[in-house]
Amino acid sequence: MSKIKIGMEKVVISKCGAHKGKIIHDDLYGGILYTFDGKNETVLITLDSCGFIMDAIDTVKAEINRATGIRKENIFTQSSHTHADIVFNPKKLGLALSKAVISAKKNAKAAVLGFSRGAVTKKYCVNRRVKIKGVGALTMTYNMRTKPDIKTGKVDVYGQVYDFIRYGISLYSPKYKLAGAFADAMTVDISKKQATLLKNLPKKIYLSKNIDPNMDIIYFKGGDKKPIGAIVRIACHPVIFHKSGSTQISADYPGVLTRELSKLIKAPVIFVNGPCGDVKPVYFESGPKETERFGKDLAGEAKKLLKKMSFTPLKRVTFLRETHKYKPWPEFKNLKEADVNEAFEAAHKAIAAPFDPKKVRELIDKGMRLWGGEAFTNKSKNFKLPICLLGLNDIALISLPGEIVTKIPLSIYKAFKGKKIVIGALGDGVDTALYVPTKDEFKYGGYEASTCGLVKGSGEKMIEISKKLLKRFFNEQRRKVARI
């Protein structure tokens, strides 16, 4: 009889911190996947949160270790990245999660495992970076002046690109609305570079489908065929509720997706967000109504995948972890608030007269980099960030720190074609790493490259570490199969 056991649990974490005047629209949850291989215990924690720095995560793990005895090194987290969360108190959060871990452990049992994958998200998500010759990369963070087509998944962003070239509007500013709202305060004249760029601009500019297209579901049932719980993963920014997030608390679309699937299987369903650093949802407007529609549509796709699923006994659980040092941007050393303000003021002055859009983009990028780097002020030491692998039979679930861009998972998939690899981002230390692009993206600039917390090459480093862990996992699997 197998000694391997699985337990799952969910707990409300909406009251584990400060609301700052917000009201709860829907609860935030912490999800638990507890595994025991006969010798070692491992815990995956999923959190309806935007993200945490390593110090906060270490506090959470210390509380769980104190309550359960499970080694901190065997606990890893995944944030959903909802932009409508609360300011968490790590100690309170750790106490709430400890109770859930104890419950999951108590109810853990032998299990059968099902896995299903479908390339369904290209209808629901787009890559939000658009590269304009003579300008560089512009990131379509918000939904202003865009034309989304829900049926086809296409998003025309001509309006936003025009606004930047014509008016120099920071597309990342929460104040960004329509160009007309800014026109009176800006120069009527334009430079030759602006005129040429506008003349050559296509009348339709569609965001690309260069994304991680997969929806993955890992489903556990007991020997009695009663559901234990499931994991659902896609790669997409949870920003649909965002506009309402200033006054309300919400798990965004992952909350709707997991709620609907939990009702279906009558067991906990937890959400792992994939590498969504440059990926946004296709939606009409911010708010609860659209959040509900998007989450339910995804749940409909997940239900189709569940119907295709077959189950096998869970005979193998593996946990691998490597922690490496990463260097922060040199500009972050001795950074002052005045440096940030100066960078943005330079961009503001530049657009007061006819300007070069590329230079303005570079000035805004610098301001964004320094703004993102304020959390690193006077911290010149290297950061230690983990990459974890949880193996379940022949499935490898990888957890990467930071907001990972699409090229990173695609590179990993390419190296292991045909393998069941489930890549999660926003893992331990997401708010320490911030965005993690590949080297080639820095020459284009844009939000993801400018708000990267780590030096160039960190993305490639994570790819190589992931490949090393995956190679070890699949080699061990091959040897075990050969022995059988």
What does this structure look like?
The structure is a single chain. The chain has 484 residues and is an alpha+beta fold. The chain folds into two domains: 5-120 and 214-325 and 382-478, no CATH class; 122-209 and 328-376, no CATH class. It has 13 helices and 25 strands. The chain has helices spanning 54-68, 90-106, 158-167, 180-183, 192-200, 252-265, 288-307, 337-350, 357-372, 407-415, 430-433, 447-450, 458-483, and strands at 5-12, 17-18, 23-24, 29-36, 41-47, 75-79, 87-88, 111-118, 125-127, 129-132, 136-139, 147-149, 154-156, 215-222, 227-234, 248-249, 269-273, 279-281, 311-313, 317-326, 383-392, 395-399, 403-404, 420-424, 435-436. The protein has a five-stranded mixed β-sheet, covered by helices on one side. Strands 1-4-5-6 form a four-stranded mixed β-sheet, with helices on one face. A hairpin with a 4-residue loop joins strand 4 (29-36) and strand 5 (41-47). Helix 1 (54-68) packs across helix 2 (90-106) and helix 10 packs parallel to helix 13 (458-483). It starts with a strand and ends with a helix.
Outline of this structure?
With 484 residues, the protein is of the alpha+beta class. It has helices at 54-68, 90-106, 158-167, 180-183, 192-200, 252-265, 288-307, 337-350, 357-372, 407-415, 430-433, 447-450, 458-483, and strands spanning 5-12, 17-18, 23-24, 29-36, 41-47, 75-79, 87-88, 111-118, 125-127, 129-132, 136-139, 147-149, 154-156, 215-222, 227-234, 248-249, 269-273, 279-281, 311-313, 317-326, 383-392, 395-399, 403-404, 420-424, 435-436.
